[in-house]
């Protein structure tokens, strides 16, 4: 953050996964780093959609504590006619944060259990494969490069395993050969995905 300050760089922090915390480390919003000394150069993007499965209800929000930045953003949004809000989305988000703690706790338990199963089974059956650590979010990265040629990954995943995943290169060239799986789902689906990958490699 200090480097950004020195070079007058605006920080746009996407914190949509802020409530999906699985490790021991707490989530720290960008706007309160170092006691909030950088918050005037931070724009925070957020939504309850990941936390409470409320996608499509149009309730995302932007937090800008810097008055001048907020005025600039408001002018920009108004010019694009992006100032309308969804009443249903607002009510759903409020209900989620007011009454959804128990539900979220169950979701986190499912994600933890799915991750533990996936990691243990993959490590046992495919010891050269790397399952990345999962501290936050319900999306796990898996490095398949020890078993699958990066140029053949798409065919392996879609044609042989018949899975729909995110591909690592979407997030940077360094992640080519990785796939990303969603663990916020029925454990049976995770088990099927793991079994298909193991079967096709072996």
TrEMBL record:
The EC number(s) this enzyme carries: 4.4.1.13
Broadest EC class assigned to this enzyme:
lyase
Q: Which SUPFAM superfamilies match?
A: PLP-dependent transferases
Q: Does the keyword Metal-binding apply?
A: no
A single Gene Ontology MF term assigned here is:
cysteine-S-conjugate beta-lyase activity
Reported cofactor(s): pyridoxal 5'-phosphate
Question: Ranges for the Aminotransferase class I/classII large domain?
Answer: 2-197
Q: Which CDD domains match?
A: AAT_like
Tell me which UniProt keywords the record has, alphabetically.
Lyase, Pyridoxal phosphate
The UniProt entry's sequence similarity note says: Belongs to the class-II pyridoxal-phosphate-dependent aminotransferase family. MalY/PatB cystathionine beta-lyase subfamily.
Q: What is this protein called?
A: cysteine-S-conjugate beta-lyase
From which source organism is this entry? Answer: Enterocloster clostridioformis
Record lineage: Bacteria, Bacillati, Bacillota, Clostridia, Lachnospirales
